[in-house]
Description:
The complex is a heterodimer.
Chain A: E1 4-7, E2 10-13, E3 19-25, E4 31-37, E5 43-49, E6 56-57, E7 64-68, E8 74-78, E9 87-94, E10 103-104, E11 108-112
Parallel strand pairs in A: 2-11
Antiparallel strand pairs in A: 1-3, 3-8, 4-5, 4-9, 5-6, 7-8, 9-10, 9-11
Chain B: E1 9-13, E2 18-23, E3 31-38, E4 45-50, E5 53-56, E6 61-64, E7 70-75, E8 84-92, E9 104-109
Amino acid sequence: NAGVTQTPKFQVLKTGQSMTLQCAQDMNHNSMYWYRQDPGMGLRLIYYSASEGTTDKGEVPNGYNVSRLNKREFSLRLESAAPSQTSVYFCASSFAGTDYGYTFGSGTRLTVV
Amino acid sequence: LAKTTQPISMDSYEGQEVNITCSHNNIATNDYITWYQQFPSQGPRFIIQGYKTKVTNEVASLFIPADRKSSTLSLPRVSLSDTAVYYCLVGESGANNLFFGTGTRLTVIP
């Protein structure tokens, strides 16, 4: 099925551990995004990639790094996890310049203890 | 980016029409208005987008007055499955830094 696939769906980390969240889309979209959503809050943009080979900071980039591996894949890395990074992380993609909106993945629920 | 203001929550009975209004006083000439729906434990889903007047699709209608400083998402005859959070976003079509805000939590009551 076409869409955005995120792995893993759930993860528990200890403070200071590192991990990479994976995201892949098969819709040939050129733009990809990482958002975080805290309980009862809206989504906040962490990083985005307007096209393969480019990445830009969003609203809350501190503590994260990203890699646009190819047109399909956009990963988010936490180098040293902190409890403040406990959240649900959503990856999304879009075909910039159209009005079809963003397609979101089902999310990764991350807990840092 | 134009910020938006929408009600925090709304309740409605099944079968009623629901209208959710969003204010965006600082909307720019090139900005579009887009609405998303988010169910618990899922990512948001694109519902509808418009620039001016009225847009309708199989899910909802979007009404935008001439001054474009507000917009209204209309959901006809809601069912329990329409219980979700609805986000109003304003930005250029295809923009890469859309601001989601906290949305409107709609609860449909039997």
